[in-house]
Amino acid sequence: METFIKQWEKPKSLTEAPQPAPVPALKTTPIQPTPIPIVMTSPIQPTPTPKGGMTAKEITAKLTALSSPANDKFIDSAQFVVNKWFNSGGFSTASFNENKQDLQKIIDYSLKNNWRPVLITLPISQVLLDNLDPHYMNEFVYEPVKEVNVKNIHYIDFTLNPQLTKNYDLFSNSDHLNNIGATVTSYLLLQELIKAGYLPKEADGYDYH
Hints:
Elements: H1 4-9, E1 47-48, H2 56-64, H3 72-87, H4 93-112, E2 119-121, H5 126-131, H6 136-148, E3 155-157, H7 162-165, E4 171-173, E5 176-177, H8 179-195, E6 204-205
Parallel strand pairs: 1-6, 2-3
Antiparallel strand pairs: 4-5
């Protein structure tokens, strides 16, 4: 079985690129990062509102809107994903340890080249979080992140945001965002990177009118 780093090092077309496994997270205290000095190699270009995309006002409205409860599609999807993660054998100890080593290599390579890596846990739906074993996220997310994150890389955990996890209008199924959800999460990521000092305020080119 090829590890993630071997796949990552190979040139791939967009259709051949390996899809990352979903990485959910438990509601615990996020890892507190130690700031790393910014290394700018080129001017930062603002991130404009995509043509035909959502404005900042529309994104805020979507985040604060009440979502309908999880329907049968999300419940069935959550049960399918839990069964896949726990019973398919895809999370063997050997392959998981290899992936941790690969992540450490990516972090080390980034820092060696004066890049500022950021670790991110993307949101999954609340119905999936509720169906996971209480120890699953600590075992497969937080503890591994703690082990590889010896350089105190900034860590952003979007599963701690109930405006995302409980808003089923942002998901296509229990563990994948839809286009609107991806747009909203990308906006929040941009704001977090600005807040943490990774990007200047000028990087925000969204329409706020």
